[in-house]
Amino acid sequence: MSEPPRVEWEEAGLPRAARWRSEAAVPPPKRVQVTLDTLPADAAYRLASEGTALLWRSDFQNARNLLQAMARRADRKPRKPVAAPASATQAFHLHRQAQGQRARVLGKLLVELEGDYRIALPRAPDLRIACQQAWGPADGEPSVASLRELLGIVGAYEWRRKGVEIPSLGAPPGNRIHPHYGVYSPVRGEYLDIVARAPLPSRELAFDIGTGTGVIAAVLARRGVQRVIATDQDPRALACARDNLARLGLLQRVEVLQADLFPTGRAPLVVCNPPWLPARPSSPIEHAIYDEDSRMLRGFLAGLAGHLSPGGEGWLILSDLAEHLGLRTREELQGWITAAGLRVIAHEDIRPRHPKAQDASDPLHAARAKEITTLWRLCAG
Ligand SMILES: C[S@@+](CC[C@H](N)C(=O)[O-])C[C@H]1O[C@@H](n2cnc3c(N)ncnc32)[C@H](O)[C@@H]1O
Fold first, then answer.
1. Cα–Cα distance measured from residue 245 to residue 353, given in angstroms and rounded to the nearest whole number
2. Which atom, in ligand 1's list, is nearest to the CA of 299?
């Protein structure tokens, strides 16, 4: 295993170093300036934009305020008018570029953690459990991370603690899914309504490919499917799915397996909700949204017929946002279905209900407003 990256800086005339933590695999900053809360927000924003990281040594809550002030500066409209993007595809690429740039600048405000994940700053919260959940048990070594990343970890801890209500799992309280850090959270859960009502070809066995939190496997098991095999490649997703299925009392009927797409064998029902945008993920946690070259989608379609029992059905859940962004055409999707020896039995559409779909200030609003998620019922032949 390669050594974890380290960040180096000078403090009080002495060289210092610590382990560098970045889930997005951002390399450690080369220029680090020890920073107190006397630094004005404009100066902090300028330094961060120029690539200097600011290692915070003052009150923790003031660091949060500074991060917000920096975010306001990052979100200011440019003074000179900018030409409207020529196409939805260009709007998408510009939007991702801008998001990346924003993340780089805001990620320059750093905080040091002690070897047990404590933060030795005035008014710092106790983030030990949140950090353990995201990074694993503390190993005694001090580390440095961006405050933005730490706040993301706190947000994920809260999501995991509270859970997300999934009406298709039944009545409360036994209908919550608790997403773990870095695992795709079914907050855009409208597609689950279709999974909950599409006619089941059999109640004997189903495969859930790319299970994430385990939510589809859980919906199928609650619908009475006797045995479900749920796969994922990501160890965090596997742990998360097991945790959720255990909480829901379904672990006896659902087996969670590490696999690239399919488990061995065939099933009368094989379900998959792949990441819906064919673009390169810019960090490991984006793997649930971006599927470079449609690798998972094409792999699922290409392998489906070989994993269906006679008369079985494959359910592909897919948003058409990529089509509205010019990243994939409907003809391409239909071509992959046909080339895989599959046929569409029926399909059911649903409009996303998430707030982003209604947000007119979102640069991708025009495409998002048209987005439809479809459950394609496929069979071999
Ligand atoms: C969009 S998320 C869907 C998660 C879950 N099924 C749901 O509906 O909430 C896609 C999932 O597929 C997983 N995944 C990506 N590539 C995979 C592969 N080749 N084999 C298995 N799982 C994969 C990701 O880790 C992620 O958990």
1. 26
2. 19
| Residue 333 DSSP SS3 | helix
Looking from the CA of residue 276, the nearest atom of ligand 1 is 1
Residue of 4, 3, 55 lying closest to 29 (CA atoms): 55
Please tell me the predicted confidence (pLDDT) of residue 129. 98
Measured CA distances, 2 to 6, 235, 299 (Å)? 12, 19, 30
pTM over 0.90: yes
Residue by residue, DSSP assigns 66-96 as HHHHHHHHHTSPPSS--PPPSSHHHHHHHHH
Q: Residue 3, exposed/middle/buried by CB under 10 A (0-12, 13-18, 19+)? A: exposed
Ranges of H-type helices in the chain:
41-49, 60-74, 88-106, 128-135, 147-162, 190-197, 215-222, 235-247, 295-304, 321-324, 330-339, 365-370
The residue-averaged pLDDT of 257-269 equals 98
Spacing, Cα 213 to ligand 1 middle (Å): 9
If you average pLDDT over residues 74-79, what whole number do you get? 84
User: What is the percentage of the chain residues whose pLDDT exceeds 90?
Assistant: 82
In the DSSP assignment, the letter for residue 292 is G
Helix (H, G, I), strand (E, B), or coil: what is residue 227?
Answer: strand
Looking up tokens 């998360």 gives 240
User: Residue 342: beta bridge partners?
Assistant: 380
List the one residue out of 340, 329, 272 whose CA is nearest residue 88: 329
350: tokens are 């649903």
* Ligand 1 pocket by Cβ (under 6 Å): 184, 186, 209-213, 215-216, 231-234, 237, 260-261, 273-275, 287-288, 296
Interval between CA 267 and ligand 1 midpoint (Å) = 19
CA distances from 29 to 48, 68, 72, 257, 341 (A): 11, 21, 23, 37, 50
User: What pLDDT score was predicted for residue 334?
Assistant: 97
Task: Give the pLDDT confidence score for residue 1 in this predicted structure.
Answer: 62
Residue of 119, 132, 154 lying closest to 18 (CA atoms): 119
Q: Which pLDDT tens digit goes with each residue over 318-347? A: 999 999 999 999 999 999 999 999 999 999
Closest CA to 58 of 18, 20, 110: 110
Tokens of 221: 């098991």
